[in-house]
């Protein structure tokens, strides 16, 4: 029930999803975080995604913040997830903790 198959969640059926995932994999600069945030926001405002896919989009952004060590962006993203009733999971919390612990 809470186990996600990343391949099925990532999917090619939502334009921008693969590029968001790619940015999250390599995020190293503030510009990468801004780009990931823009892509996250565009995907979420354009498509009516089911809760697991919405969580995946948010978690991709959180992965970018974790790689960059941007705790402020991670906490803002976490607060947005809570405010918009996105279901949280262990990956969500893990990425926030990593962002905080590697903060630059």
From TrEMBL:
InterPro entries cross-referenced by the UniProt entry: PPR_rpt, TPR-like_helical_dom_sf
Domain of life where this protein originates: Eukaryota
Endpoints of the signal sequence: none
Protein name: Pentacotripeptide-repeat region of PRORP domain-containing protein
């Amino acid at each position: 029930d809470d186990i996600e198959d990343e391949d099925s969640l990532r999917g090619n059926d939502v334009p921008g999803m693969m590029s968001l995932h790619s940015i999250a994999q390599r995020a190293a600069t503030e510009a990468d975080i801004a780009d990931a945030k823009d892509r996250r926001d565009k995907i979420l405002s354009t498509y009516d995604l089911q809760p697991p896919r919405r969580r995946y989009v948010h978690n991709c952004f959180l992965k970018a913040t974790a790689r960059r060590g941007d705790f402020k962006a991670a906490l803002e993203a976490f607060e947005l997830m809570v405010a918009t009733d996105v279901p949280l999971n262990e990956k969500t919390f893990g990425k926030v903790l990593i962002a905080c612990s590697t903060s630059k």
